[in-house]
Amino acid sequence: MEHFMEAKRRIIFPLDFQDLETALSWVELLKEYVGMFKIGLELFVKYGPKAIEEVRKKTDLPIFLDLKLCDIPNTVSQAVKSAKALDVDFITIHTLSGRHALKSAVEAAQEKPKILAVTILTSLDKADLLELGFNGEYIRETEELVLRYALLASQCGCAGVVVSGKEIKRIKENLPKLLTVVPGIRLESQDTQDQLRTATPAEAILSGADYLVIGRPIRLSEEPVKTCNIIIQEIERALGLLRCSKKA
Ligand code: C5P
Fold this sequence. Notes:
Layout: H1 2-9, E1 11-14, H2 20-30, E2 36-40, H3 41-47, H4 49-58, E3 63-69, H5 73-85, E4 90-94, H6 99-109, E5 114-118, H7 126-131, H8 137-140, H9 142-155, E6 160-162, H10 168-174, E7 179-182, H11 201-206, E8 211-213, H12 216-219, H13 224-247
Parallel strand pairs: 1-2, 1-8, 2-3, 3-4, 4-5, 5-6, 6-7, 7-8
Helix pairs in contact: 1-13, 2-4, 5-6
Bound molecules: cytidine-5'-monophosphate.
């Protein structure tokens, strides 16, 4: 049971729905099988704080407000203060907002919500980065760029970073205390959709991921609860292997 709880705690389910009723029915369905719910732009742009209030009526699980803020320091810090009043647990800021915005977000939050810095979206690959003007070593090794962003996030006092499964290892080797939140998770042989830098739950956990954002692999499955259980078992096994390797 303890291992089940530890594995389920690692799963963040994004409430990527247009309609609040539908989102709430998914909260009801999955609240025993995931560790956190993520409210993102799709729901928040339409319903605002009501979305958070309604989810909270259904569960005590932590809430991650994923607004991926990217703006000047004053705007970012004021937005974080507004989020603080909503008592959410995590909020995201784009690292591209820069050092001053990241620092002002951390100061505005004061411990809660925890600030997660978005590094390079998992939907971007090298061709996209080249088009955006990145070049040299950062194009050859996306993980170098992500590591640089993670270092900045850590220097600014962020609690963690949002990264792909491919980059966790380097980050954990260099910044072991920084939480890693990993989207772009796909089960073995599943369609990756718009995600380009993907990993399986086991790969991500074995690389040191703290949390996995898993949306469509659960939402589009014919039996979401069964899929959650399969993922939980996969995470449990991976955590078991990690425990063994630490003892050895
Ligand atoms: O598993 P799936 O691809 O459906 O997950 C999509 C979710 O992951 C969305 O809520 C999206 O905002 C989030 N995401 C993220 N950071 C990325 C890529 C996706 O937070 N780099």
